[in-house]
Amino acid sequence: MELNLTKAKEFYYQMLLIRRFEEKCIELYSKQKIGGFLHLYIGEEAIAVGVMNALSEDDAVLATYREHGQALARGISAKSIMAELFGKMEGCSRGRGGSMHLFDAKTRFYGGSAIVAGALPLAVGMALADKMQNKNRVTVCIFGDGAVAEGEFHESLNLAALWKLPILFVCENNRYAMGTALKLTESETEIYKKAASYKIHSKQVDGMSVIDVAKASKRAVEDIRENGEPIFLECLTYRFRAHSMFDAELYREKAEVKEWKEKGPLVVFEEKLKEMGLWSEIDVQEIENEIASVIDEAVEFAENGTLEPIKDLEKFVYSEVNHG
Amino acid sequence: MDNIITYREAVRESIRKAMQEDERVFLMGEDVGHYGGCFAVSKGLLDEFTDKRIIDTPLSESAFTGAGIGAAMNGMRPIVEIMTVNFSLLALDQIMNNAATLLYMSGGQFNVPLVIRMATGGGKQLGAQHSHSLEGWFAHIPGLKVLTPATVQDAYDMLTLALADPDPVLIFENSLLYNSKGSLDTKVTPLAIGKAQVYKEGKDITILTYGINLFKVLEAVESLEKEGIAVEVIDLRSLRPLDDETIMKSIKKTHKVIIVDEGWKSGSISAEIMARINEQAFYELDTPMARVCTVEVPLPFAKHLEDEALPHAKKIVDVVKKVMGVS
Amino acid sequence: MPSLGADMESAILMEWLVKEGDRVTKGQVIAEVETSKGVIEIEVFEDGVIEKLLVEEETECKVGVVLAIINSDSEEVSQVKVESEEKIVESQKELVVETENERLKISPIARKKADELGVDLTKIEPINGVIHLSQVEAMSKTISKIPEKKEKVKKEKNGMRQAIAAAMSKSNSEIPHYYLSTSINMTPALNYLAELNKERSIKERILPVAILIRGVVLSLKETPQLNGFWLDDEHQISQEIHPGIAIALRKGGLMTPALLDAQNLGLNDTMNSLSDLISRTRTGKLRASEMTKQTITITNLGDLGVESVYGVIYPPQLAVVGLGAIVDSPWAEGDTLCVRKVMQATIAGDHRATDGRIGAQFLDKLNQFLQKPEELV
Asked: Using a CB-CB distance cutoff of 8 angstroms, which residues of chain A are in contact with residue B111?
């Protein structure tokens, strides 16, 4: 994959957008503009940006409850995500889903699942349907290291491999399942090896490097389109913020967080661009300004959004079609 | 065009017809292909439709049920067969957290036109882990539809209806019914999902039931009629949605009702129905409502105990007589 | 000894009406007992032969004591299930039958249907403690139709609830009532009766209600304006006095049959006629004239402890006399404060026909008569 200036600017913009968007979310959550759970992606931006870069419009994405980054990188507007966080009808899930359940048919973004590993079986079915319908599409399923302990992870990997389904499994290994370190819960902490045991081609990637993730994803997606078989990427990363807003972070040392922040995705990317001589071509302040206005617009849009009328409370429990 | 076939054949014919008419339809589940189905429902279908559409799954209820949901969201019309309701508990996460919620959670963007069939019920000396009747449980969940075919006609029709439905539908087939025979008319327009059927009219008392208990009720009715009690028998057919209209209409006629439910009493569908009658037809009642449910025990293996734990005709007769004030 | 009320602890077996060896049939009255509320008949509920009378006459027995053994036709030997029927009129308080305090169980549809059909649920005998739809439907068939014209209602005295409802509504909307009340010292009258009854057998005793009716009738002779009708905007005074006596039925409902030509009845005759009237009312054997000729109504709720009764006039009558409970009350006589048996007597009059003054004269007369009970004989 060639990293030209345009792509470099795009990656930087997207990662910074996710970062600034979530920083704004923290502020709005503190002001009680946003309710419910709020799980932040800060520190893991490189994965969302790198993976989404590899997809075409036709592909489908299934993510977890920590999915603001994937949603933004996939192209769901900051406005509709922010409106969703505000619980407004203009939100991408009509205010029905919230932070953990972002959905968007236009970009084939299938959530936002808040049951750990719960989306893996869905990805199997999505890919099975594509295969049965001879559609050359890829289903990307993103989940964390916590999912690895669930039965659904193993059942799904087995089925994907057994049935040769076009799925890109992306495991964001940020080393903690909520507050419990991976080494305390897994006998084998090299997650990609578990995938390999199902005969899935699998690989460990530096999840802090957007270039590495982008390269690996692009290649994986091309391979899947070519062979129709699943691929598994384990992206090593780190969550800079707490698990959710209400988390005292008793389970990890501040020094560890600091250490990881020093090799965070924006820092690493800047260094890489400097090496490549592209950094001087990037006007960071201009990007910051642009992002600031996008976020301001998003907040304003969300503030001015509509609350769904109570009379529609029961709408969409079932489909609104006449099927007598 | 009437012909006498078994319940099993009716389900099979319905699957076959759907698969012939709609290439989006496929069947997936444990032992549905090479084995021919645990209850031989899908016997022969593998040869006809190949393993591309009759898909044997590993014992991964959660994954293949979830796969059914994913496939349904992505253009297909899957029929997922969960061998028995007992194993559906391993897929509860997918059924409840995904199938039932996705349309709502996505603000109406993604519907799940999935059909899940499962064998259900006790009465075969299979012990506590293989004899569940959880249809009432599933009927608790908004977003799902719950069907309980009792007759051969419904065994055939309900699958057709479920496949035509845009939302997840669970069909509970009592395994003791697979060998039962009845007439099937494939030309008749099926009675819609959510419609109960007045199986037999009567003026004295209404019995609401579903699934296999329809036949236990009919057995009871035979002896009750000899004593001059005219029973109206309603086959609920659909536990979610419930056909409140038909239920209340009958109560307005007979003013007395008992419910025969294979579930346990506490928190059962019969409890729900009683609550609705109370809400909607309290002033039509002439006697307290009564019900026959499964005794609240994990079902025992010993036959005499299991027989007594389940609803049976004599219990139904006794409860009806008690309500009618005759001994 | 059957329990005849929650507050009954014992009663005196006054008289056996059967002897050992007698054949008795279901419903037959076999004894009379005197309770704090008066004499009540005891009837049997099984066919059989009296094997043994276990209690002698004039013996006080606690509730639950076995009074007799009946050799039942259905069983070898069974202790008599003695139940009681309140005797028709044995005391003033018997004028209105007690209603059970126990809540009647009525199925929801039975209640709804009864409302629609105007069936009085208290008249239905529950089966196993509950009234069901079929009973309401059966009962509705036996109820006479509601008169089509309101004018007819006033003569349809057996129309039960609807008839009462129609008449009372008419009364309330058409008749401008006035109400008057006075306290009457009943001690002289009660003492007089006690004296009078001393020599008499139970059946011949005069009850206070009789002397009260007699008093009302004689007072009406003095104030005839209250006795008669308001018909076609005309005040019609009746020469005959036919007081309608409010009688509660056992299964609920109220009838006010006329005690015909009461002006011709002395005290004894008043008592006898009243007993007869109540008996026939409760067995449904009233004559047509008794149903239609009332010229005034006398009502009494004293047995329920009510002290004052303000009645609603039964059209086209002119007044209703209300008699309350006789209660021990402080009473001033000259300079002395003493305790006397006191009753509130009220009159509701039709203001179109009479003024309060006439009503007041009536109450004053009644009071005077009751102070000189010997004049009432």
From this structure: 319
Co-location of C190 and C57 in the same domain: no
For A304, the token pair is 């001015």
Distance CA A102, CA A20 (A): 18
Q: Look at residue B188 in the predicted model and tell me its pLDDT.
A: 93
Residue B34 known to be catalytic: no
> How far, in Å, CA of B13 to CA of C321, rounded?
85
The answer to whether residue C366 sits within a structural domain is yes
> Angle at CA A152, nearest 5°, toward A147 and A156?
105
Single residue among C53, C87, C121 that ends a domain in this structure: C87
Instruction: Work out the angle between the directed axes of helices A120-132 and B61-73 (0-180°, nearest 10).
Output: 50
Contact assignment for B287 to C110 by CB distance below 8 Å: no
Q: Is there a single domain that holds both residue C323 and residue C181?
A: yes
Residue ranges covered by each domain of chain A: 5-296
Would you call A93 and B73 a contact, using CB atoms and an 8 Å cutoff?
Answer: no
Say yes or no: C106 contacts chain B, CB-CB below 8 A: no
- Asked if the model's pLDDT at residue A138 lies above 50, the reply is yes
CB of C113 less than 8 A from some CB of B: no
Q: Read off the pTM.
A: 0.69
Enumerate the β-bridge partners of residue B115: B79, B169
Looking at the 3D structure of chain C, how many domains does it have? Answer: 2
Mutate to test the interface with B, among C109, C115, C124, C137 (most CBs of B within 10 A): C109
| Active-site position among B130, B232, B262, B306 | B130
- Do C80 and C190 have their domain in common? no
Tell me, yes or no, if B140 is annotated catalytic: no
Active-site residue, selected from the candidate residues B9, B13, B30, B61: B61
| CB proximity under 8 Å: C 122-181 to B | 127-128, 132-134
ipTM surpassing 0.95: no
Q: What residue type is assigned to position B151 of the chain? A: T
Token pair in block for residue C213: 């009716």
Class of domain B2-185: alpha beta
Q: Are B255 and C110 in contact (CB under 8 A)?
A: no
Nearest by Cα to B160 from B48, B28, B43, B15:
B15
Statement to judge: residues C181 and C53 lie in one domain: no
Strands C10-16 and C59-62: antiparallel
Q: Under CATH, what is the fold of the domain B197-322?
A: Rossmann fold (3.40.50)
CATH 3.40.50.970 fits A5-296, yes or no: yes
Question: From CA B220, how far away is CA B204, in angstroms rounded?
Answer: 14
Pick the residue with more confidence: A228 or C126?
A: A228
Q: Is C231 on the interface with B (CB under 8 A)?
A: no
**Other beta carbons less than 10 A from residue C243's beta carbon:** 25
**Contact state of B74 with A126 under an 8 Å Cβ cutoff:** yes
Q: What is the Cα–Cα distance from C64 to C57, expressed in whole angstroms?
A: 17
Across the interface, which of B66, B106, B143 has its CB nearest the CB of A125?
Answer: B66
Burial of A204 (0-12, 13-18, 19+ CB in 10 A): middle
> For chain B, where do the domains classified as CATH 3.40.50.920 start and end?
197-322
Residues A44-53 have pLDDT tens digits of 999 999 999 9
Q: From CA C287, how far away is CA C260, in angstroms rounded?
A: 11
Compare CB distances from A115 to B74, B93, B107 and report the shortest one's residue.
B93
C212-258: pLDDT as tens digits: 999 999 999 999 999 999 888 888 899 899 999 988 777 667 778 89
| Coil vs helix vs strand at A116 | coil
